[in-house]
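Entry 14. Ran structure prediction on the chain below.
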Amino acid sequence: MMGESLFIKTNEKVNKKPVYRIEGDYSINNIERIKEELKKILENDKKIHLDIKNIENIDLTAIQLLYSLKKYLKEDFSFGIELKEDQKQILLNSGFGKFFNLK
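Output, C-alpha cells:
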C-alpha cells in the first residue's frame, strides 16, 4: 500500500539543496518504498538534503542506503539525523559511527 509519501518536501534549503523530511520507520520494512520515492525525488531535484527525525525504527539496511546516496551523489546529497541513544549504539556497533560523526 503506497498511501501518502514517506518524504515531506519542506520550504527549507540547506546549502541551496531542497530539504526533504522523513519520520517514522526508516528500516528494511520500508526500504523498497524509500528507494522508489527517492528515485522520483532525484528525477526532479538533483541535489537534496534529507532531514531524518522522530525515527521509530532504523536498521543497517537504511544506514547503508544513506551511505550509498552519499557516495553516489557526493556534494549533491547531505543529511541531518536525530537519533535516540539506542539507535546511536546500533550505528556505533555497525561501524558507521564515523560516517555519522558519532563518538
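The chain has a mean pLDDT of 89. Will compare against last week's run tomorrow.
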